[in-house]
Specification:
11 helices, globular, 251 residues
Length: 251
C-alpha cells in the first residue's frame, strides 16, 4: 500500500477555511481541499470574535442587551455572507416541500425561498437572538459566542466525511471527502478551544451540538440519501442554536 505523505494539518488550511466559510478578504489557493476541513472551527472562531466585538461595543455604548444581541447576530451574518442560513432555508424547503428524493434535491437547488425556508430562517434567527440576549444580560459575551461558533462548525466536516454526497455535484461534492482523522482533528480543535473559553461548562453545549448534528444527519439521510452543501450549512445553524441554548442554561 502506498504511503500517504499528505500532512494532516498545515497553516494555510486556516486561510482556506476563512476563504470558504467567511467573507473576510483572505487569499487562498484552496489546494488542500478536504484536508483543510479541520480548520473550519477556526473560521468560526474569527466570526464569533467579530460578533462578540460588535456586541461588546454596543453594550459599552449603552444599548440594551436586546439591541446588542441583534447587532452581534447581524455581524455574524455579514461575516459569513449568510452562507449557512441559506443552507438552512434550502433544506427546510426541500425536505418538506418535495414528495420524493429527486424533487427535494431540485427544490434545494432552486435559488428561490419558499414558506418552509422563510419559517426556518425566522425561527432560527429568533432562537439565536433570544439565547444571545440571555447571555448578554448576564454579562457573558465573548466566551459563549466563541464557543458556539467553534462547536457548531466541527460537525460539518464530520457529516462530509460520514455521509455520501446526495447529488454528486455542487459545493460539497467539489470539496471532496475529508478523512476521519481530519474530521476528528476539527472536533478536537473545536472542543479544546471551547474548553479554554468557557471551562468545563463546555460539556453541555458539546453534547447538545452532537445530538443536533446526529439529528440533522439522520434527517438528511432519510429525506435525500446523504449530504449536500446545504445540509452542511443547515447543520451549522442547528448546532449553533443548540450550543447557544445550552450555554444560556449555564448563566
Amino acid at each position: 500500500m502506498a504511503k500517504n505523505d499528505t500532512p494532516l494539518a498545515e497553516a494555510r488550511d486556516i486561510t482556506e477555511a476563512l476563504g470558504l466559510l467567511t467573507r473576510f478578504p483572505v487569499q487562498s489557493d484552496a489546494r488542500r481541499g478536504p484536508h483543510a476541513a479541520w480548520a473550519w472551527p477556526l473560521a468560526g472562531l474569527a466570526v464569533g470574535f467579530v460578533a462578540a466585538l460588535v456586541g461588546e461595543v454596543a453594550l459599552w455604548l449603552g444599548l440594551s442587551v436586546w439591541l446588542a444581541a441583534g447587532l452581534a447576530l447581524a455581524a455574524q451574518i455579514a461575516a459569513t455572507g449568510a452562507l449557512h442560513e441559506d443552507g438552512l432555508a434550502d433544506c427546510a424547503d426541500g425536505f418538506w416541500g418535495g414528495a420524493d428524493r429527486a424533487r427535494r434535491l431540485e427544490i434545494m437547488k432552486d435559488s428561490r425561498t419558499g414558506s418552509y425556508g422563510v419559517l426556518a430562517l425566522g425561527l432560527g434567527l429568533i432562537l439565536r437572538w433570544s439565547a444571545q440576549s440571555v447571555l448578554f444580560a448576564h454579562g457573558w459575551v465573548l466566551a459563549p459566542l466563541l464557543a458556539a461558533a467553534l462547536l457548531s462548525r466541527a460537525p460539518m466536516a464530520v457529516l462530509l466525511a460520514a455521509l455520501p454526497n446526495a447529488r454528486g455535484s455542487g459545493l460539497a461534492s467539489s470539496l471532496g471527502t475529508p478523512s476521519q482523522a481530519t474530521a476528528s482533528l476539527g472536533v478536537g480543535v473545536a472542543f479544546g478551544l471551547s474548553l479554554l473559553a468557557v471551562g468545563w461548562g463546555v460539556l453541555a453545549p458539546a453534547l447538545w451540538v452532537a445530538l443536533a448534528a446526529i439529528g440533522v444527519a439522520a434527517l438528511a439521510k432519510h429525506r435525500i440519501g446523504g449530504q449536500t452543501g446545504d445540509v452542511l450549512g443547515a447543520t451549522q445553524q442547528v448546532a449553533e442554536i443548540a450550543a447557544l441554548m445550552a450555554l444560556s442554561t449555564l448563566v
